[in-house]
Amino acid sequence: MFMLILWIHIAFGFLALGTAGLALGSAKGAALHRRVGQVYVCAMFGVSATSLALVTLRPNAFLLAIAIFSFFLVFTGWRAGVVRDGCPRALDHAVGALMALAGLAMLGAGAAGLAGAGGAAPVILLVFGAIGLTMALSDWRDWRAGPVTGKERISRHLTRMLGGTIAAITAAVTTNATFLPELVAWLGPTAVLTPVIFWWNARILRERAA
User: Which of 105, 112, 171, 193 is most exposed, with minimal Cβ within 10 Å?
Assistant: First the structure.
């Protein structure tokens, strides 16, 4: 059973990576972008569901935390794209609370790990936990200020979808590029591609303002 779910998980991952490339290369807002984006979201949700099944069969708190973080990125990116009025629903708050709790747990486990045996895993938990918790808190801050619409909504959609793509790339790198140091494999894609997200966000916000 475990191996069957693992192969399904891998298939969803390949589908997510392929459709992410098509979505990035297509005109934003066009029919192709929307359709490919929907397949990408479904594939990433499939990755999350199979991750949950895998850690249920073979408990692994580290991988569970990473799975929650990846799901949060794609879910919030998808919601930013489809909820055009910018008003959060109960489900949005629930997923945000899940990420906030997971982020706190990741930070606590990472700090405890550094104080103990050390290694790469505590650093990874600290980095991803900090990112996830910051995003969850920023969502609530923005919602308190009013609906997230216009260029801010598009910016959030872009940031979170690209974040989910980084998560998928990271999974592929950590699985296949086993010759790389663990920290490089886990954090390298984030370090390389995060500046691209900032650049793309600045471009969108500037174009929308103009």
Answer: 112
